[in-house]
Amino acid sequence: MDRIGKLKEFLQKEPHDAFVKHALALEYVKLGEDVAARRLWEEVLERDPAYVGSYYHLGKLLERTGEKELAIQWYQRGMKAAGTAGEKRAFNELQAAYEDLTD
Q1: Cα distances (Å, whole numbers) of residue 67 to 12, 49, 60, 101
Q2: pTM of the model
């Protein structure tokens, strides 16, 4: 079975699994299916705002699709979440992406 099929199978068993949704979104990006990837990352972050890894990828997707202001907002949210969680590396990556868009 392909990766997307396997991930969808996992989601049928655990529909709110943030890790699986995040992984599925990454697979969709590889296929150029940005709408599906965006939807999944937004679902992850709505349900679990502390799932820090999704902020960066969602922001990059939004940058790529020309939604700079929205990307900036997600980076800001991600920096706040990473700071709260004490995830310094994630914070620094989000901050660098944010600064690239705002400088």
Answers
A1: 31, 21, 10, 11
A2: 0.93
The values of phi and psi at residue 18, to 5°, are -65, -40
Q: Residue 60 burial (CB < 10 Å; 0-12/13-18/19+)?
A: middle
Q: In the predicted model, what is the mean pLDDT of residues 39-66?
A: 97
Write the CB contacts of 60 (distance below 8 Å, at least 6 apart in sequence).
71, 97
Question: What domains lie within the chain, and their CATH numbers?
Answer: 3-102 (1.25.40.10)
Q: Give the model confidence (pLDDT) of 36-49 as tens digits.
A: 999 999 999 999 99
Tokens standing for 31? 């296929």
Residues 6+ apart with CB under 8 A from 19: none
Query: Distance between CA 5 and CA 73 in Å, rounded?
Result: 32
Write out the H or E segment, with its range, that includes residue 72: helix 68-85
